[in-house]
């Protein structure tokens, strides 16, 4: 048995960026496999039999080509599960704090992100008005470290909470800076109102935190704005009403 890690992802995937960030943070030795998830190769069902989605990791087992996953490796999927797995595998990275209270805070931040922010952001990316994102942003802001304790979601160390959120904010910034989806949804409804609503002074702490994440080397190293631009533009175009 080896400790090999093979990561199945894609440059444009918000979820695979999460796991890519963590792999960079822990400085893991791993093989990366870029998967066309819109046209799935047959071997993906062997690399990730549970969901056949990306991101996925195979861990251990013999060292094999990525397109011939071994039945002996562990198959790990779901971005948050993978983040926790990597934090467990590399405990000195502090991606999950040792303190039980801080661990709970990290997990609650992720839970709030995935239930209160991402669903409304996804709806906005598909043409819904951006109004509900304000409540999601407020819910996250309320959880941020107290004054003087940051600069990350929970304390002074970058954790899986930050890795989970950064890819979403990178996409919000890209969409609003490049007017992605304007032809489909209209400038005022889609872009101007989103910038206005999330730009209010009451959300200054949230914005400062979110923008700070984008400066993190692991986030920059795993961010492909041109690929995302092309993908998001193509997706939005599908919503243009003929
Ligand atoms: N809840 C999953 C979502 C993963 C997901 O939706 N992955 C997309 C790519 S971004 C995918 O594999 N889509 C192909 C499919 O669902 O068949 C996670 O957090 O990992």
TrEMBL record:
One Pfam assignment = GST_N_2
Example of a GO MF term: transferase activity
Keyword Signal belongs to the record: no
Which residue range or ranges hold the GST N-terminal domain? 3-94
Residue ranges of every copy of the GST C-terminal domain listed in the record? 99-239
Q: Is Transferase a UniProt keyword of this protein?
A: yes
Q: Which GO terms describe its cellular component?
A: cytoplasm
InterPro entries assigned: Glutathione-S-Trfase_C-like (IPR010987), Glutathione-S-Trfase_C_sf (IPR036282), Glutathione_S-Trfase (IPR040079), Glutathione_S-Trfase_N (IPR004045), GST_Omega/HSP26 (IPR050983), Thioredoxin-like_sf (IPR036249)
UniProtKB keywords: Transferase
Residue intervals passing through the bilayer: none
User: What's this protein's name?
Assistant: Glutathione S-transferase C-terminal-like protein
Q: Which organism is it from?
A: Coniophora puteana (strain RWD-64-598)
């Amino acid at each position: 048995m080896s400790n090999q890690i093979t990561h199945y992802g894609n440059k444009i995937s918000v979820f695979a960026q999460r796991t890519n960030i963590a792999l960079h943070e822990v400085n893991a030795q791993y093989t990366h496999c870029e998967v066309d998830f819109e046209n799935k190769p047959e071997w993906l069902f062997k690399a990730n039999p549970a969901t056949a989605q990306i991101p996925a990791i195979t861990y251990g087992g013999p060292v094999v080509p990525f397109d011939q996953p071994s039945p002996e490796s562990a198959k790990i999927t779901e971005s948050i599960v993978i983040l926790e797995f990597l934090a467990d595998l590399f405990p000195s990275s502090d991606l999950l704090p040792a303190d039980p209270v801080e661990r709970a805070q990290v997990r609650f931040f992720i839970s709030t992100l995935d239930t209160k922010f991402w669903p409304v952001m996804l709806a906005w990316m598909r043409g819904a008005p951006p109004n509900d994102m304000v409540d999601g942003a407020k819910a996250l802001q309320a959880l941020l470290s107290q004054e003087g304790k940051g600069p990350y979601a929970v304390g002074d160390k970058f954790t899986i909470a930050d890795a989970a959120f950064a890819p979403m904010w990178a996409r919000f910034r890209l969409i609003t800076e490049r007017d992605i989806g304007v032809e489909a949804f209209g400038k005022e409804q889609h872009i101007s109102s989103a910038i206005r609503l999330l730009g209010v002074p009451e959300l200054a702490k949230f914005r400062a935190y979110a923008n700070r994440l984008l400066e993190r080397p692991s986030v920059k190293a795993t961010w492909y704005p041109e690929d995302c631009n092309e993908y998001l533009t193509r997706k939005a175009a599908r919503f243009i009403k003929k």
